[in-house]
Amino acid sequence: MLRQLIGPDNMIEFPNHSRSYDRTRRAVRFWGHDSAIEASFFINEDALKRIQPDTGYDESGFLHAFDFNRDLICAAAAKMYVRGSRGSYDLVAANF
């Protein structure tokens, strides 16, 4: 299903389902892979609240909102990704 959202021509994939909550950035961090290149992505709390308004406002709630909306988030991350441009990307509410 994710491949359909991103499209077959996109160069980044999200095979690693690991994610973690970064208290300093107030965001969930996840990773994408473009061949051997790994890129970090962060989706901030406001973006998670926008896509899932009933989310709990704590680490557990934000991780649950990320897991529940993973396909949507990864599709937005793929649109933002530019090969070789930088090591990390920030998704904000305006991306949704």
TrEMBL record:
Pfam families: DUF1488
Domain of life: Bacteria
The protein's name in its UniProt record: Uncharacterized protein DUF1488
Species of provenance: Bradyrhizobium huanghuaihaiense
